[in-house]
Amino acid sequence: MNTSTVVSDGSRISSGNPGLDNILCGGLDPDRMYLYEGRPGTGKTTLAMQFLLEGARQNQPVLYIALSESEAELRLVAQRHGWSLAGIDIFELIPPETTLDPDRELTVLHPAEIELSETIKLIFDKIEQLGPTRIVLDSLSELRLLAQNPIRYRRQVLALKHFFIKRRCTVVLLDDLTSRDTDLQLHSIAHGVVLLEQLAIDYGAQRRRLSIIKMRGIEFRGGFHDFSIKQGGLEIYPRLIAAEHHTPFTGDFTPSGNLELDKLLGGGLERGTNALVIGSAGVGKSSLALTYAIAGAERGEHVVYFAFDEGRGTLEARARTLGLRLEPALQSGCLRFQQIDPAEMSPGEFAANVRSSIESDCAKIIVIDSLNGYLNAMPDGRFLILQMHELLSYIGQQGVLCILVLAQHGLVGPMDTPLDISYLSDAVVMLRYFEYGGHVRRALSVVKKRSGRHEHTIREFQLTPNGIEVGPPLTGFSGVFSGTPRYTGDSGPLLSGRLVTDEENDRG
User: Fold this and answer.
1) Contact status, residue 388 vs residue 373, Cβ threshold 8 Å
2) 89-111 tens-digit pLDDT
3) Owning domain of residue 100
4) Other CB atoms within 10 A of residue 84 CB
5) DSSP state, 408?
6) At 431, which CATH number?
7) I want to staple 61 with a disulfide (CB 3.0 to 4.6 A). Which of 44, 132, 184, 221 is the partner?
């Protein structure tokens, strides 16, 4: 994931996770106590291990205090992430080799059998012995059980805080939120609180997100930030804020490779704008978007085609049917096709993917096919428009052309649009079926273009073996976009010639 560089005041330390550092605008304040809280399985231990690994990488003494997990379990987690725990001291307060030894019953350090003060003393002694600069304590749930009541628990946590401050070490406390009490009083003790959540949606993979509940004296990006647990740790996708990103660019035209189509668009689509291609299923929306993508790749520009609905094989078949040179564009590396599974990828991860395509791969054209698939990727559709607004604003400020495909419900007659995003679009190209002489035909028109003049006519177009063929204005028709046209002229404006059949189009 590509994250923007944030300049801090020089006194910050890295959390060990680039995404979290980005959200915190530089990292953590040193010599403070932080709380990572979340239900079991949300990724707290993994994020805490990244914090210690960063310290070990800088040759700092670091300590993991394990109250709820064994050292063997921690090492297994590290092994599966491909980490080496060399340089990390693990202090296990539940020695497995002594828990069942009756002769050593008084030294068995089980949370339910020893006093809290004894446990705290063991922790203090270990810290004084090693002098670590980074400490993880896993977890507060065990201390809460030992404390028996909230007052004693709070006093012990305060005692830990004052002890850590004197030792000049940065501490991360983990809490699995298994207590019935919310323990919000703990938030007032910690310097910062990070909440990790795991959401179960009706279908597909579980979604994880992170938010900063509190950070004293640290500017941070609020709200929820999607993340996923992958080999190597947590991959956090900071919420996209378009206002933070702007690159100077020249808003020149981006040709489609089709002269009549560019003429209809008043010269073409400008860089730094977005175009919404809208129409019913099979009318040619993806073919129009693919035409733009291949034309850009043939000019040597980097193009990324994000496909939510179709696989690469389907796209290749369509390109062959239309005579478009897709394979050379893919082989040259100028065109990258990425299949998106909406059941597996969160909107935050998708936005991070788009950012990486623009900032790392220098993409000049982005195609999102389709918004219907993007809508299905949202666990809560209420925020689709807001997220898309930020994403489109960001793409536009980078001087990149974005082509959006949106399928309407229905084939002829009144159309139902699953979401209204037209007000966010700089240009709207509408494609419709209409009937004439017992044949199904296709028409297109530019119904909106903010950035300049465009034709206001409706033109017929055909999908042919030589690509998209755009005909002259349908001056003898009215009611074409309603699906029930009335014809008053001659057949001159209508196209003729070799068409791509519906069977060929379905294969493509």
Assistant:
1) no
2) 999 986 444 444 555 444 444 44
3) 18-239
4) 10
5) P
6) 3.40.50.300
7) 132
